[in-house]
């Protein structure tokens, strides 16, 4: 009993802090999202109900943002995790200069975002002087130049996915190489003596052994991709709705501060819809991972 | 299947560049193991036993030398295709698989005409599991088993594919005395029935002596002696082998040969014909002492331990390497418990003489003094 009280006492500062800066705003957002016709200047509203949700769900900009976000999530999470796994396996199997390669792959992680943006400019952006490196390559193989920044939807989506994968890759490689290194050689030896082929060793030993880390990466990857915003801004500027490249978080931001801003109720409703989506997907993820990883 | 090792050498290069020291784990090792025999591999910790097994299984590549299974040179073959069964010193059970899945794993890897149906695999796995008495734990994960149970799972996993060659790296070290005895007899029975050529590493020389057709004693990567357990015990080739086999251990005395007489201190104990004068080590097995009122060797008696069938006279001698001399004698013999002094005659066939420098056995037939 006494210990209990002590524990609560120690927790008190954290609870106060979290209450003030996390729980209260969350509740506030929930309240906002049900207040219809809220006016931020006069701090008044006309009624309580689900209209904000209905408005957001019928807003073509929001639907576009949802579509963009889902495409981004569905493409970048598997691609980046798969790529990271391949690269980590490669890194794990080389003997010479291993540290050097690991450093090279980790460089983007510690590199300034602006520098990364610059790299993407060189790769994709059309300027008065150059078509961008990717276009030069396309031309070399006899294709026609594509405007990746102001051009067709799929081209812009491709660049956004490419950029996102590029940004998240180093961290995933770091996690997976250390996960692979922590699998004891003994298990591989035992499997070899048991006559397992390389492929079976990979599927039956390596993958299950590192699966907790893979699930961790997939879950955080999903959450991260759903919350994507700054990457799109870095590539396409702040008017994402016009570029048809907005994301859900971008939509929320625009509703608060953008040109169409000043609608905290719509923003709150959109934010809660996003919360619902992320929550559902994370729960599903956790349920699957519970079934899979255990030892 | 007959296993032949030909001048096998394994040198581990030094890890860091500063120390140039490389480790020679196995050195010029030649040995032929006849088909269907059980070989006990004995040696002190770090003498290269596990390395030798790894070489045979293919997990390590020899620095030089060749390995033959039957008539086939397998030196260059990877472990996957050698088809040996190996019980690792630390079990190496797959932690994410259940006991049953662990045992099934080698079966699922079989290819071509050896491929089994699911039903056949299950039957074989169950058979192997009941052989080592782990049938009740099949659904558990290795982390939910005791050390001894894990060890038995490892044995079942190695046995289940009925390998031609079975390598066991201290497979019984974690079992309690009763289970150990039982499992080693089981192992022996399985080995006899299946005729799998088996190499069995153990620290326990009694275990090795009791179940092996032949024992191999190695030291610092070098083969010292190979032979039937009793032969090695009765005729050790050097001091190391003599000391290594037998409980209680052999009693070792500093001594010398003077005009064909074997001397310990200033007592001459045996006659050795044809041996020139020199410093020697004298090894006397515990059962090599005959208590005798006017025996040739005088020791200070410290205690008598009676153990029913026989008893041990514990004594000491200034020229003895062992802190205590242990002489095992029949309990029918009359000895005085309170005596300060014990006198013995030595049995010539239980007394071995070794060169003082190299520890090599000096071949000679000692005889009692005339
Ligand atoms: N991978 C390795 N790299 C360098 N040295 C090694 C390696 N493996 C073993 N050694 C060395 O080789 C020698 C023999 O080792 P090994 O494991 O074969 O001994 P062992 O007889 O099995 O000992 P134990 O009875 O303690 O298991 C030891 O000196 C050890 O330090
Ligand atoms: Mg060992």
- Net shape of chain A: globular
**Strand-residue fraction of chain A?**
under 5%
* Mean pLDDT score of chain B: 89
How many helix segments of chain B? Answer: 9
Architecture of the largest domain in chain B, according to CATH?
Answer: 3-Layer(aba) Sandwich
Text of the CATH class of the largest domain in chain B: Alpha Beta
Bound molecules: adenosine-5'-triphosphate, magnesium ion
What is the CATH third-level topology name of chain A?
MetI-like fold
Which stretches of chain B are low in confidence, meaning pLDDT under 50 for 5 or more residues running?
none
Describe the main β-sheet of chain B briefly. 6 strands, mixed
Average pLDDT figure of chain A: 85
Can you give me a brief rundown of this structure?
The complex is a heterodimer of chains A (295) and B (370). Chain A has helices at 2-34, 51-58, 60-93, 98-110, 113-124, 133-140, 153-181, 185-193, 198-226, 230-236, 240-243, 248-257, 264-292; strands at 35-36, 47-48.
Structural notes for this entry:
The complex is a heterodimer of chains A (295) and B (370). Chain A is mainly α and 295 residues long. Chain A has one domain (54-292): MetI-like fold, CATH 1.10.3720. Chain A has helices at residues 2-34, 51-58, 60-93, 98-110, 113-124, 133-140, 153-181, 185-193, 198-226, 230-236, 240-243, 248-257, 264-292, and strands at 35-36, 47-48. A two-stranded antiparallel sheet of chain A has the order 1-2. In chain A, helix 3 runs parallel beside helix 7 (153-181), helix 7 packs across helix 9 (198-226) and helix 8 (185-193) crosses helix 9. The radius of gyration of chain A is 24 Å and the shape is globular. The relative contact order of chain A is 0.12. Chain B is an alpha+beta fold and 370 residues long. Chain B folds into two domains: 3-240, P-loop containing nucleotide triphosphate hydrolases (Rossmann fold, 3-Layer(aba) Sandwich); 251-355, no CATH class. Chain B is built from nine helices and 21 strands. Chain B has helices spanning 49-57, 79-82, 99-108, 118-131, 147-159, 177-194, 205-211, 229-234, 239-244, and strands at residues 3-12, 23-33, 38-42, 64-69, 72-73, 84-87, 165-169, 197-202, 214-219, 222-227, 251-258, 261-264, 267-271, 278-284, 289-291, 297-307, 310-316, 325-330, 341-346, 351-355, 367-368. In chain B, the strands form four sheets. Chain B has a six-stranded mixed sheet with strand order 6-7-8-3-9-10, with helices on both faces. In chain B, strand 16 and strand 17 form a beta hairpin. In chain B, helix 3 (99-108) crosses helix 4. The longest helix of chain B is centred in the middle third of the chain and has 18 residues, at 177-194. Chain B is elongated and about 75 Å long. The mean pLDDT of chain B is 89. The complex binds adenosine-5'-triphosphate and magnesium ion. Adenosine-5'-triphosphate is lined by residues 12, 23, 25, 43, 45-51, 89 of chain B. Magnesium ion is lined by residues 49-50, 89, 169 of chain B.
